[in-house]
Amino acid sequence: MSKLDPDVVIDLTSAKKATIPTIAPGLLLALSDGLVLALVGWTLNHFLGTDPLADPVEAAAWQRSLVTGLMLVPLVKSVFGIYTLGRFDYMERTRRTFQAAFLCCAVLAVPFIVMEGFRSFFVEALSIALLGFAVTYVADLLLIQGLLSSALDWRTPVMIVGAGPQGAAIAEKLQRLPWLGMRPVGFVDDDDSLWQTRVAGLPVMGPVELLAKSPAVAGQASAAIVADMGRHGSDLTGLVRTLPFRQVYCVLGEGNVSAVDATYHNLHGSLALRVSVRPPTGYLRIRRAMDIVLSAILLVLVAPLMLGLAVAIRLDSPGPVMFRQKRWAGGKQTFDLLKFRSMHVDAEEQLQHLLANDPVAREEYMTYHKLTVDPRITPLGRFLRKTSLDELPQLWNILMGDMSLIGPRAYMPKELPEVGDSADVIGTVRPGLTGYWQVSGRHRTTFQERVSMDVFYVRNCGLLFDFFILCKTAVMVLKGDGS
């Protein structure tokens, strides 16, 4: 067999039938919304509706408000393309849902102002519509995260063009986040040293031209992802035309583009990407005010809990209650990050001894800067980390202005060489108690993935993005998905 024979590289057995072969994700979302809105309508009418026999005029007005509010939800969501977002992440879905709800408010605000006799109708309709947006948003997430993500064959099989570091990162991300709706099946790359090897657990099948020459190879996927557009330069258009797929995704870069507000424009046949660069000054002032208010309130509320944890730590193992560690705050500034101690006092010595004698642990620590099984952690410390209670003292760091509730990771000064040039971006905002990387895989992400996600957050930070992160953080804490 030749080196490019696809049978040498991959198993060409036919794939099993799709779990949901005929129903598109968008249609499933629309049907789900219809069912949810019907239940909401029945519930509201049952508990809040007026008896038609007692007051037929008021009952008819209520029915008009109910129907108007419920019908606006799928109508406005379809205008914003939410039913076609089965393969987009939570942030994009959240952003468009907020935009749809805002448009709904604007649409109903105009007649509310000019039609005085119908104001009660518009208040009721708007309240029902906003409730509908909230309930269907939760239902959509449950459907995508639950039913669709678990159905492997719903995910579009994709071939990744380029098996370099960026292609490997994309493959790992698609495998780790099934709700993105894509399932990588392999790589093609013109670097012959990579052929018949595996990258991110997937085979490198051969050169790019193999897709056009071998229907058996091309038949394994329905779309392609060009992992590194920079490698192909001006020849990108020619490359895309040679790929035997109707859909080709071209990745601009890992964390290097402000993607939340990016849109494309057709400049008379030339594709252009518009990226908004928003001045963060006003947003940072608002966020600092929120940090002060929320951290002060939370410190008062959790003070009894923190006192109890302090006593438990002293009883669990010898050593101080608090753990202080120098963290980077941008530029040449550092601060003392506070945590409840979750490790033995000789943790650093234990770590060096473990890394020197255990190559598997050393490799894991070099990749993730964490250990799955860490002997340095105390029995109580495991509980504190799993529930994230060890981070409660950082509320004081937030109140003092060292940190923010939401932001990039608080890196240690010794990690800055690995952060590299990205430090220039990350250092422009305060580190956060929680952040985008913490809610996007946490300990399952590599160090460089965390850096990329921190850069992405800083370049796209905003109140809506922060609200999204707070909601996901609350879910993770309730699930006990700590570090």
TrEMBL record:
Q: Where is it chiefly localized?
A: membrane
User: Keywords, A to Z?
Assistant: Exopolysaccharide synthesis, Membrane, Transferase, Transmembrane, Transmembrane helix
Q: Does the keyword Nuclease apply?
A: no
Q: Where in the cell is it found?
A: Membrane
Task: Give TM regions.
Answer: 26-45, 65-85, 97-115, 121-144, 292-315
Pfam annotation, one family: CoA_binding_3
Q: How does it sit in the membrane?
A: Multi-pass membrane protein
Any keyword Acetylation? no
According to the entry, every stretch annotated as the Bacterial sugar transferase domain falls at 287-479
> Which family, according to UniProt?
Belongs to the bacterial sugar transferase family.
Protein name, entry field: Exopolysaccharide biosynthesis polyprenyl glycosylphosphotransferase
